[in-house]
Amino acid sequence: MAVARANEDYPEEIDDQLTNFDSSVSSVKTMLEKLMSIPRNEQPQKLDPLDQAKLDLMSVYTLNSLFWMYLVTQGVNPREHGIKQELERIRTCMNRVKEITEKKKAARLDKGAAARFLRSALYDPEEKDARRKSASKKKSEGARDTPP
């Protein structure tokens, strides 16, 4: 590596950072190639709406982040550019999608099961015997009233 570095015009201290940056750019390029290999009109058919929203938000956020980096390389302060507000808007949408995902995973209360648990927990044998007697009394009265 030292032989290859002899002709380069940057300080040795940032060599590791540049190597990491190069590998990150290669990773992004690989992911984008995979994403671009699927025609855009076929992607929604393979994903449910929530996953499609996540994909769209990730794509927009990535493009805007790359534009942020481009502005930095051109000497423009991105904090004073409209890209900052756009990135914040996208983050807000990402948080909404995250909330929706968390709500889907949250436990739900089954009211019928809860009522059965409470009735079982509050079981009163005397009350149950009284209900049985009244039910059997109604059956026997109903049997007398019905003609043969």
Automatic annotation (TrEMBL):
<dbReference type="GO" id="GO:0000460">
    <property type="term" value="P:maturation of 5.8S rRNA"/>
</dbReference>
<dbReference type="GO" id="GO:0003677">
    <property type="term" value="F:DNA binding"/>
</dbReference>
<dbReference type="GO" id="GO:0005737">
    <property type="term" value="C:cytoplasm"/>
</dbReference>
<keyword id="KW-0963">Cytoplasm</keyword>
<feature type="compositionally biased region" description="Basic and acidic residues">
    <location>
        <begin position="128"/>
        <end position="148"/>
    </location>
</feature>
<keyword id="KW-0539">Nucleus</keyword>
<dbReference type="GO" id="GO:0005730">
    <property type="term" value="C:nucleolus"/>
</dbReference>
<dbReference type="InterPro" id="IPR011082">
    <property type="entry name" value="Exosome-assoc_fac/DNA_repair"/>
</dbReference>
<dbReference type="GO" id="GO:0010468">
    <property type="term" value="P:regulation of gene expression"/>
</dbReference>
<dbReference type="GO" id="GO:0003723">
    <property type="term" value="F:RNA binding"/>
</dbReference>
<keyword id="KW-0698">rRNA processing</keyword>
<keyword id="KW-0694">RNA-binding</keyword>
<feature type="region of interest" description="Disordered">
    <location>
        <begin position="126"/>
        <end position="148"/>
    </location>
</feature>
<comment type="subunit">
    <text>Monomer and homodimer.</text>
</comment>
<comment type="function">
    <text>Plays a role in the recruitment of the exosome to pre-rRNA to mediate the 3'-5' end processing of the 5.8S rRNA.</text>
</comment>
<protein>
    <recommendedName>
        <fullName>Nuclear nucleic acid-binding protein C1D</fullName>
    </recommendedName>
</protein>
<dbReference type="InterPro" id="IPR007146">
    <property type="entry name" value="Sas10/Utp3/C1D"/>
</dbReference>
<dbReference type="GO" id="GO:0000178">
    <property type="term" value="C:exosome (RNase complex)"/>
</dbReference>
<comment type="similarity">
    <text>Belongs to the C1D family.</text>
</comment>
<dbReference type="Pfam" id="PF04000">
    <property type="entry name" value="Sas10_Utp3"/>
</dbReference>
<keyword id="KW-0238">DNA-binding</keyword>
